Give the backbone structure.
Amino acid sequence: MSEENLGSVHILVVEDEAFSVEAVRKVLNNIGATSVATASSGADALKLLEDADCNFDLTICDIEMPEMSGDKLVYVLRYGTASRTCRS
């Protein structure tokens, strides 16, 4: 994918550390991404996804976060519901 194509990609970054969010955002901006939204937890990401006017094409997610782990968030995004067998 070229830099010209990244301008139309909607990206969600889910990360609880502010420094990491800014580092990822800077890298994405440097490679041409212009539509980058952020959430500080899995729960915030789900709320943002429910309220969003557009779908996200890519989600970059931390694994170890409070409230809801990144792998649990990905499970919910994939299957639509949390499972008892999913790690928290």
Observations:
- The CA atoms of residues 33 and 81 lie 30 Å apart.
- DSSP finds four helices and three strands in the chain.
- Residues 83-88 have pLDDT under 50 and may be disordered.
- The radius of gyration is 13 Å.
